[in-house]
Sequence to fold (765 residues):
Amino acid sequence: MNNLFEIDAWKIIERGFDPSKQKQAESIFSIGNGSFGQRANFEEKYSGDSLQGSYVGGVYYPDKTRVGWWKNGYPEYFAKVLNSCNWIGINIEIDGEQLDVHHQEVLSFQRELDMKSGTLSRRMKVRFKNGKELEVESLRFCSMHDEEIAAIRYIVTPLNFSGNVKFTPYLDGNVMNHDSNYDEFFWEEDSHKVDVKKGYVCSKTKKTNFSVSTAMRFSFWKNDELLEIHPNHVSKAFFVENNFEHYVEKGNRYTLKKYVSIVSTISHSEFSVIPRSINNVRQAYMNGFDYLLNNHIAAWEEIWSKADIEISGDVAAQQGIRFNIFQLYQTYTGKNEKLNIGPKGFTGEKYGGATYWDTEAYCLPFYLKTANPKVARQLLIYRYNQLDKAIENAEKLGFKNGAALYPMVTMNGEECHNEWEITFEEIHRNGAIAFAVYNYVRHTGDHSYLEKYGRPVLIAIAKFWTQRFNWSEAKNAYVMLGVTGPNEYENNVNNNWYTNYIARWCVQYALEVEKEVSPKVGALLTNDEIKSWNHLVENVYFPVLEGTRVFLQQDNFMDKEQLTASDIPEKERPINQHWSWDRILRSIFIKQADVLQGIYLFEDHFDLKTIQDNFDFYEPKTVHESSLSPCIHSILAAKIGRLDKAYELYLRTSRLDLDDYNHEADEGLHITSMAGTWMAIVEGMAGIRVLSDSVKINPVIPKNWKQYRFQILLRNQPLEIRVSQNECEIINKGSQDLELILFDENIPVKAGNFYIKTTTKTATI
Ligand code: BGC
Fold:
């Protein structure tokens, strides 16, 4: 695998301009602050191949569904995260020729994403057609400190001439979504205005009526001297610009500082978005670029102090994990309960930027251990707020009595996925949402959440499952027919083991919670319901491979031709790009963890031998064509001592986008699976398992790592773990004493104390 960009512990570095990598780079060097995000498009004009992308969290358009054959129950639309007003624009022109590196000679080029400070910078020297050479240095950030602010420092230095240069900072709301189903323009204009040195564009989404006001203001400097300039202003629909020509002197630096504010009706009223954005840029301008930058860097420092994983001895692995952590926090910070985590975050359009089960199954564990519990709680509240819609969704499919089916893909709680085998059948997503409630409570001990918000969600989900199972006379058990498990390379199967398992668990957990909570606040279930639910829990059917400990992915799984992924010729992989869909469906090959996903979630229900046997059965058949897959296999491989495999799968997940394993980084990054990478270290390598009253630690370390170190939050108490080749150190940085289980031994670690175990048990990969 070739590294796309240079390896560095804190930075992603691109040296030399290669237009064929531009779209990949635009994704990988994306910046964001949880509220909005921006692909690494150039500030100035670029006429080469590019995917322009500026996205505002939660703002979407219901793009009319496009399917070959309509099925009752399909949603009318697919929610699309919208490409919104281009706020980075700064055009540069010399003697009528625009700066556009697609047409000019690039003498040198370096682009850097500094993950520590959350800044994107670029430095390049360009020769114009008339021989004039210009150096451009830009630095930009989306403020982590103030979620409505972004800023750009754009410096030009004439290298071999003195003469006029035209500067044009602008805002352009005339932007389309690349993936629009019917080439529709999703915005209508609210208003725009521009005067000397400042302006705004306010656009409104058609149908959904979100308003987004983007305002700009700028200052212009010669070296360190603020210049008084008198720019022209131009405006038309969705567009404002200032422009001015300035006589620049050879060797001097001319800096344009552009302050931007993006304010939407996700957080503010329709009437306040424009004045607020204007006010924000005025304040930003007065505070100045360095002040904003310092606050932004301090906010990142705070995040890193909790969330960083330090790896010594393997810079590629270090860069990989930091990139994942960085992108996750750029996508979601938990400040707003209306926001969630799209599989591509703010780095591309694919998947619509909407919420999938990825959030609960992958991202939640990351935020639970690296951020204040409020952040994870926001993610749960998001689903709580959408419970009514989930009930409506289930009603549309014929379920009743308050049963809820959460959507496979959503922005506002309504289902917007439209492939029948996923929309109607990939119902296991309901289970991940219930599991998230359980996971949150065991990490935080927040039982008040369970009472007020968790219980109604759990009961409604359990009601769905109790109706979705049916009694089979033939099997004398409850069965579940016509589902798609996490492995989307099988559709419409009966008794998908994972779905049956998590569904039964949901019913069981809902019953437990009901028992715990109802004496205090009243019952939500009748005695008859409790009785029939218990009957179901005791009588669910699970397919197994007779005489073994292997759980079968679904009924009749063994009828398939028994091959392994190594039987697929390299040139036919990934199979989803080379094989017909029906061939994939008939084959044994598994897209992503399915039975193993269940074993991962409910690991403590199974003995080690069962985990091993299932891993050995399924791993060779798995092609890992979902980014969500290798991390789960890596965690289980570490658990059963297959350490080479654990490391191999870890590397694959951690550098998935940086090395573009799946040849799709140009479309955006795999944000949700990045949380899986983090899990592969914390739960895989370090073997951390949070139990309701304690935490287990079973660390291993790859042989090429000197040590790794990270912190997790447990009941909001920081616990630092350092694992080296011969010892494991645990520091209780909180104010409460902790009971830990290290290599199956109970270890009390008092508040403020540390514990070191020098051990040969710290196995070496
Ligand atoms: C996976 C799903 C996942 C979706 C979004 C698909 O390829 O199979 O499990 O939810 O991507 O990440």
User: Anything to note?
Assistant: The chain has a mean pLDDT of 95. The chain is about 30% helix and 25% strand. The pocket of beta-D-glucopyranose is lined by residues 343, 351, 356-358, 486, 488, 592, 626, 628, 672 (CB under 6 Å).
